[in-house]
Amino acid sequence: MRTYEVRTYGCQMNVHDSERLRGLLEDAGYVRAPEGDEADVVVFNTCAVRENADNKLYGNLGHLAPVKARKPGMQIAVGGCLAQKDKASIVRKAPWVDVVFGTHNIGSLPVLLERARVAEESQVEILESLDVFPSTLPTRRESAYSAWVSVSVGCNNTCTFCIVPSLRGREKDRRPGDVLAEVEALVAEGVLEVTLLGQNVNSYGVEFGDRFAFGKLLRACGSVEGLERVRFTSPHPRDFTADVIEAMAETPNVMPSLHMPLQSGSDSVLKAMRRSYRRDRYLKIIEDVRAAMPDAAITTDIIVGFPGETEEDFQGTLDVVRQARFAGAFTFQYSKRPGTPAELMEDQVPRDVVQDRYERLVALQDEMAWDENKKIVGRTVEVLVAEGEGRKDAATHRLSGRARDNRLVHFALPAEVEAPRPGDVVTVEVTYAAPHHLNADVFGAVRRTRAGDAWQRSVEAPADAPGVMLGMPTIGAKPLEPATNGCQVG
Ligand code: SF4
C-alpha cells in the first residue's frame, strides 16, 4: 500500500482541510507513513498569509527533489492558499511537483494523483469557486474527543492586510441541518467538544438570508445530548450581535471563552485596515459579553506596525488592551503581503519601530494576562484532559488540558489516583498562575467519559476508531502557530 504524509501550514481552516485530505487518501487506499519514514506521497497544505510562505514552500520542495529522484513512484502534491494563488507557476518553479490543487477542490486530490501517475505528467487543477463543501468529504480527525466543524468557507470582508477573500472566495454557508447532523455524528463517535469554524463565523447565515442564524446554531448545539463543550472561531466584531451573546450566556454547553480579533485600537488604523468597526464599538462588545458572562475569557489578535500607524495610534492599541483585559492575545508584526491593498500603502513603518512597539505590546499583554490568571487562583475548575505531558517541575509531575474558558491548566495527579485518559474530565483547584497557563496542584475527581473511551479505542484498536488519526498534534494542548498578519481564521 502506498503511504502518505500531509504537512499542514497556517490556520485552523487548513487543519480542518488537512483532516479531509487524510480522509480522502485513506479512502483511496493509502496508509499514513509511520513517523520519520519517507512517504510515497507528500502533500503540502499551504498558507499564503505567513511571512515568506513562498520561500518556505520552495525550500521544502527543494529538499524533496533528491528524495524523489532516488525513490521511483514518489509523488508530491501542493494544495492550500499558496497553490490557489500561484497555480501553475509552482510546477514551473519546481517541475518535480506532480499535482497542484486549490482551496476549492481539495476533493480532487486522489484523482489528480492517479492522473499524474498514469500520464507521467504534472496535473494542475485550480477552481475559482467551491466544488463541494469540504465538510462533506471523508475525514481523519486529529483528536478522538475534540473536533472542528466548519460552518462556512470564504469571507465577504475586505480587510486590506488580508489575502483570504481572494483565495477562499466569498462566504458560503452550510445548511444548519448539515452542521447539526455532523455534530450529532461526531458526538455518537465519542466527541465531547466541537469548535465551529469559519473565516468570519458569526456572519453565518448571510448566504441564506438569516442574520440570526449563528445564535440559533449555538442554541441548537445546546440540545445535542452528550455534547459538553461548544467553541467557535473566529467572529468579526462588526457582526457580533446581542443574540450571539445571549445564546452564549443561556446555552450551558457553549463555553465562556471568546476569541475576537481587535487588530488595532486606533480608529484611523482600523479605517485603513477596512475593519468596519471602531474601538468604542469593540469595547462595548467586551462590556456586553462580560455583563452576560462575568467569567468569560476573552482573547484576541493584534497587528502592530500597520502602514501609517503613529505612536499615538499605537498608544490607542495599548489603551484598549488595558481596558479589555484579554486573557491572551496573538500579536503580529505587520509584514507586507503580496496581493493585498496594504502592500501598496505609503508610510510603511520602519522594522525597528515595529519591533519596539511589538515588544511593548507583548510586555503589557503578558502583564494583563497574568493579572487575569491570578484571579483564578483558589478556584475549582473543570479540565478536559489533553494528550501529552503537562508541565513538570522538580517536585511535581503534571498532566494538562483546557478549562471551560479555554485556559491551559497543568494539574498534579496524586500517586494513588489512576491517570485520567485524554478526553476524560477532571475537577481540580488552581494553585498557581503564570501569564500563559495555570497550575492546579489540588486534585478533586476524575470523570471518565465516552470521549475518554473513544480515545482508548483509538489507541487500542485504531481500526475501530473511524475518523481518528493517532499521534497527530492534539487540539487543546498547544494552538497551532498563528499566521502572521492577523488572519487566524477571521
Ligand atoms: S482578516 Fe478575516 S475577516 Fe478580514 S478579510 Fe481576512 S479572513 Fe476576512
Automatic annotation (TrEMBL):
<dbReference type="InterPro" id="IPR013848">
    <property type="entry name" value="Methylthiotransferase_N"/>
</dbReference>
<dbReference type="GO" id="GO:0046872">
    <property type="term" value="F:metal ion binding"/>
</dbReference>
<dbReference type="InterPro" id="IPR006463">
    <property type="entry name" value="MiaB_methiolase"/>
</dbReference>
<feature type="binding site">
    <location>
        <position position="155"/>
    </location>
    <ligand>
        <name>[4Fe-4S] cluster 2</name>
    </ligand>
</feature>
<dbReference type="Pfam" id="PF00919">
    <property type="entry name" value="UPF0004"/>
</dbReference>
<feature type="domain" description="Radical SAM core">
    <location>
        <begin position="141"/>
        <end position="372"/>
    </location>
</feature>
<dbReference type="InterPro" id="IPR002792">
    <property type="entry name" value="TRAM_dom"/>
</dbReference>
<feature type="binding site">
    <location>
        <position position="11"/>
    </location>
    <ligand>
        <name>[4Fe-4S] cluster 1</name>
    </ligand>
</feature>
<dbReference type="InterPro" id="IPR007197">
    <property type="entry name" value="rSAM"/>
</dbReference>
<keyword id="KW-0004">4Fe-4S</keyword>
<keyword id="KW-0408">Iron</keyword>
<feature type="binding site">
    <location>
        <position position="159"/>
    </location>
    <ligand>
        <name>[4Fe-4S] cluster 2</name>
    </ligand>
</feature>
<keyword id="KW-0949">S-adenosyl-L-methionine</keyword>
<protein>
    <recommendedName>
        <fullName>tRNA-2-methylthio-N(6)-dimethylallyladenosine synthase</fullName>
        <ecNumber>2.8.4.3</ecNumber>
    </recommendedName>
</protein>
<comment type="similarity">
    <text>Belongs to the methylthiotransferase family. MiaB subfamily.</text>
</comment>
<keyword id="KW-0411">Iron-sulfur</keyword>
<comment type="subunit">
    <text>Monomer.</text>
</comment>
<keyword id="KW-0819">tRNA processing</keyword>
<feature type="binding site">
    <location>
        <position position="162"/>
    </location>
    <ligand>
        <name>[4Fe-4S] cluster 2</name>
    </ligand>
</feature>
<dbReference type="InterPro" id="IPR005839">
    <property type="entry name" value="Methylthiotransferase"/>
</dbReference>
<dbReference type="GO" id="GO:0035597">
    <property type="term" value="F:tRNA-2-methylthio-N(6)-dimethylallyladenosine(37) synthase activity"/>
</dbReference>
<keyword id="KW-0479">Metal-binding</keyword>
<dbReference type="InterPro" id="IPR006638">
    <property type="entry name" value="Elp3/MiaA/NifB-like_rSAM"/>
</dbReference>
<dbReference type="GO" id="GO:0005829">
    <property type="term" value="C:cytosol"/>
</dbReference>
<dbReference type="InterPro" id="IPR058240">
    <property type="entry name" value="rSAM_sf"/>
</dbReference>
<feature type="domain" description="TRAM">
    <location>
        <begin position="374"/>
        <end position="444"/>
    </location>
</feature>
<comment type="function">
    <text>Catalyzes the methylthiolation of N6-(dimethylallyl)adenosine (i(6)A), leading to the formation of 2-methylthio-N6-(dimethylallyl)adenosine (ms(2)i(6)A) at position 37 in tRNAs that read codons beginning with uridine.</text>
</comment>
<dbReference type="InterPro" id="IPR023404">
    <property type="entry name" value="rSAM_horseshoe"/>
</dbReference>
<dbReference type="InterPro" id="IPR038135">
    <property type="entry name" value="Methylthiotransferase_N_sf"/>
</dbReference>
<feature type="domain" description="MTTase N-terminal">
    <location>
        <begin position="2"/>
        <end position="118"/>
    </location>
</feature>
<dbReference type="Pfam" id="PF04055">
    <property type="entry name" value="Radical_SAM"/>
</dbReference>
<dbReference type="InterPro" id="IPR020612">
    <property type="entry name" value="Methylthiotransferase_CS"/>
</dbReference>
<keyword id="KW-0963">Cytoplasm</keyword>
<keyword id="KW-0808">Transferase</keyword>
<feature type="binding site">
    <location>
        <position position="47"/>
    </location>
    <ligand>
        <name>[4Fe-4S] cluster 1</name>
    </ligand>
</feature>
<feature type="binding site">
    <location>
        <position position="81"/>
    </location>
    <ligand>
        <name>[4Fe-4S] cluster 1</name>
    </ligand>
</feature>
<dbReference type="GO" id="GO:0051539">
    <property type="term" value="F:4 iron, 4 sulfur cluster binding"/>
</dbReference>
